[in-house]
């Protein structure tokens, strides 16, 4: 089996019709979102969700984000406190996921929530929201890649990794944000950051006037996607905060800053020669994949500023560099 790829820009009606058919049959579809490409299936259908886990090779204790068409749909599945509602109104549609208590008998299958009494909800931009609106039910949609590997930011990335396991990939071009959504949970008036992503903590603080609480260290409890210590990993090892290049390495830079021995690198990439963190986030996963494809035994990555979107970039790189099981 080889996945059919439909270009949304060229055939939006055909893409929508084909996706609705596959989803209605209980199978996953790879869809573009503004963050990364997602592997979407009916969040209310146990068999469909099981196929997501099977296709990705994803542990079933790792919950899935459920994507909604709009806030009105989201209210049917998650219980919103005033602060969570304020965040939703400020950042949806967009790259923010809220962890909310499940509405009783919401219909979201426990497989999607990994049996938790909470659910991660996001309203995406563009075609994905249109698809959900026509489908009429939420779509569980983790990133469309083999579990633990680098997330896909193009249809080509999905096809290379999962093309033989899927029937349909929708091509919406390069994902403009390039890293997954930020995940937060509101508890007792506090905003806890579970995963940094496409909305910066500074942006959340500016909207709410409340300091975002970051974790003290790795958590043994999986409350949301993207919390596994080793994740987003290419085949080659990853070395962080590199100032020099060692034999056998590919090099990823930021801001045009040189690294000693760069001429020895298998290949050199710069996430953003101008030092733009949004550009760097959009290029991150693609450049990790390109560096991995050079045959380098290790990927050396220069230091990235930790503010704004840099927090999400550094989070992904730290997980990519973590010891693998």
Question: Can you walk me through this structure?
Answer:
The protein has 325 residues and is of the alpha/beta class. It folds into two domains: 4-213, DHBP synthase (Alpha-Beta Complex), CATH 3.90.870.10; 237-321, 3-Layer(aba) Sandwich (Rossmann fold). It has ten helices and 15 strands. The chain has a nine-stranded mixed β-sheet, sandwiched between helices. The protein has a four-stranded parallel β-sheet with strand order 12-15-13-14. It has a two-stranded parallel ribbon with strand order 1-8. The chain is globular, with a radius of gyration of 19 Å. The mean pLDDT is 93.
Count of DSSP H/I helices: 10
The number of domains: 2
* Helix and strand pattern: EHEEHEHHEHEHEHEEEHEEEEHEH
Tell me about the biggest sheet?
Answer: 9 strands, mixed
Question: Whole-number average pLDDT?
Answer: 93
Helical amount? 25-40%
In CATH, what is the homologous superfamily of the largest domain?
DHBP synthase
Protein name: Threonylcarbamoyl-AMP synthase
Binding site for ATP: 58, 62, 118, 143, 151, 195, 232
Domain YrdC-like: 13-199
Organism: Neorhizobium lilium
């Amino acid at each position: 089996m080889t996945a059919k790829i439909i270009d949304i820009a060229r055939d939006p009606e055909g893409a929508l019709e084909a996706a609705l058919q596959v989803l209605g049959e209980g199978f996953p579809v790879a869809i573009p979102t503004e963050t990364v490409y997602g592997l979407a299936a009916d969040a209310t259908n146990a068999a469909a969700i099981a196929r997501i886990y099977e296709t990705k090779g994803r542990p079933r204790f790792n919950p899935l984000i459920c994507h909604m068409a709009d806030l009105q749909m989201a209210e049917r599945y998650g219980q919103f406190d005033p602060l969570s509602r304020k965040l939703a109104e400020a950042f949806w549609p967009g790259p923010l996921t809220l962890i909310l208590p499940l509405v009783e008998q919401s219909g979201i299958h426990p497989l999607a929530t990994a049996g938790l009494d909470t659910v991660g909800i996001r309203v995406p931009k563009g075609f994905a929201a249109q698809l959900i609106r026509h489908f009429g039910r939420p779509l569980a949609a983790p990133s469309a890649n083999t579990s633990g590997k680098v997330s896909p930011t193009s249809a080509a990335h999905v096809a290379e990794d999962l093309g033989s396991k899927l029937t349909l990939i929708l091509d919406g071009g390069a994902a403009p944000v390039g890293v997954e959504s930020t995940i937060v949970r509101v508890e007792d008036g506090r905003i806890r950051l579970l995963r940094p992503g496409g909305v910066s903590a500074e942006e959340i603080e500016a909207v709410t006037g409340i300091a975002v609480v970051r974790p003290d260290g790795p958590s043994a409890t999986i409350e949301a996607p993207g919390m596994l210590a080793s994740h987003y990993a290419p085949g080659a090892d990853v070395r962080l905060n590199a100032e020099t290049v060692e034999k056998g390495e590919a090099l990823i830079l930021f801001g045009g800053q040189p690294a000693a021995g760069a001429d020895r690198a298998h290949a050199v990439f710069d996430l953003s020669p101008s030092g733009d963190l949004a550009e760097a986030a959009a290029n991150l996963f693609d450049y990790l994949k390109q560096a991995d494809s050079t045959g380098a035994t290790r990927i050396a990555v220069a230091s990235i500023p930790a503010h704004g979107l840099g927090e999400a970039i550094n989070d992904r790189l730290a997980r990519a560099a973590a010891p693998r099981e």
